[in-house]
Design a protein that fits this description.
homodimer, about 260 residues, alpha+beta, five-stranded mixed sheet, globular
């Protein structure tokens, strides 16, 4: 991309987030969100409507781009540019009134994320990451913090219940070596890592629309985010994610997670 | 208390919350909060300064009342009226930039909580509970929702790591019977219960300054909150708390938690 194309694509991504916000917040504030992800639940309705609004903008502005969305599936995902959309990441939080859910918007080029937005509308916060540029949080550049050793690291995961079998054992091994673990921040945890407030986020069982947007945000803030084998996160990764604020901390976490 | 005394004490409690807010938020927004609760950490400094500000108001306004605070200990706690203060509940969240921590302010009369505030300054939300009156959230009355059966219930706890031994087994038994569990909302979870967004909050290892403020908030919204044996929460409870939005759900949860 040229610098000019960058700016236009970022502006387009922000338009998507802006379009999702009133839909998502309308459902969130209505309080009728007890059912998470049942087929005709309010959460699913909010998800679908927000994704439809974003898809309509993309259809008008870049009809040759592909789209992979949580609710409405795949469209032209062999294209050079593919938008990856999760209208509500953190549906349990959303369904229970916890304001840390987010809208995740990524643009992948040839399968690799080059632009990502974590938008947390209930707390009016937005992280934007663009490959090769500093990540911003509500417009201000942010950076991860230094923490080179596991014994000093603070870790987030959405819930221990996301790990099963060997992954659960690996997560417990890592938990035993770090300073402190905490749960329940969903995608907001990756924003906190980009902003230098925590050192590790380790999760499993994620989908491409859960992790693609995180990559440019974390990398543009000075951190590193890969799968548990150290491989780059792409549209075809296995859904296990390890993000570290300090590049020296990341291999230590991967070593611990390895069987 | 007469109605007039009620109003004056509520106004005083709100003054305490208002005094704590800028101190707590100043430290939170500064970002220098990596160390949680080390003796000279920024978290402890924020805790101490906020509690000192609240104590100064109480010393001026009601010098005959007792005070039990997390940071500065006991003062005249045999008095008829005792204020119970936790300047920052959810220090791990606070230390990592997660905006769901809260200031908890309770007034106990003869050991029983009669007034409670959950103030969540980073999201500008405040629940106020007064014995015998409807609980409010940012000034509007709130009510718990109906959910009479465990199989339909959504549950919050701060972290599974707060349960040990028999308590951990009991919490797992309950987890196996409910619809869904989630973590990481700290005192905000009790606000969500009062506002009818979740059905159960079950925790252990709490101190009086962690739970006293919750009692009037939950009860005034139509819920019930006790220790795990069904006993009223007082200054001398054992720190295991079970809150339910639906009065019919509460005994089912207690049965499950019982050894």
């Amino acid at each position: 991309m040229t610098a000019g194309a960058d700016a236009a694509l970022v502006a387009l991504a922000e338009r998507l987030a802006d379009a999702a916000r009133p839909i998502v917040m309308g459902y969130f504030e209505s309080g009728v969100t007890a059912e998470a992800k049942a087929d005709d639940s309010p959460v699913t309705a909010a998800d679908r409507q927000a994704e439809s609004a974003m898809r309509a903008i993309l259809a008008a502005e870049c009809p040759d781009h592909g789209i992979l969305g949580e609710e409405h599936g795949r469209h032209n995902t062999d294209a050079e540019y593919v938008w990856v959309l999760d209208p509500i990441d953190g549906t349990v939080g959303f369904a229970t009134g916890k304001p840390l859910f987010g809208t995740l918007i990524a643009l992948c080029r040839n399968g690799a994320p080059i632009l990502g937005i974590i938008d947390a509308p209930a707390v009016n916060e937005r992280w934007i990451g663009v490959k090769g540029q500093p990540t911003t949080h509500n417009g201000a550049a942010v950076a991860t913090r230094r923490c080179a050793e596991l014994k000093d690291a603070w870790l987030y995961a959405t819930t221990p219940d996301m790990f099963e079998g060997a992954s659960a054992h690996a997560f417990q091994r890592l938990s035993d070596l770090i300073r402190r673990r905490a749960f329940g921040a969903d995608c907001y945890a990756y924003g906190l890592l980009a902003s230098g407030r925590v050192d590790l986020v380790v999760e499993a069982d994620l989908q491409p629309y859960d992790y693609c947007a995180l990559v440019p945000v974390i990398e543009g803030a000075g951190g590193v985010i890969t799968d548990w084998s150290g491989g780059a996160l792409t549209l075809s990764s296995d859904g296990r994610v390890c993000a570290a604020g300090d590049r020296a901390l990341h291999p230590a976490a991967l070593d611990c997670l390895a069987d």
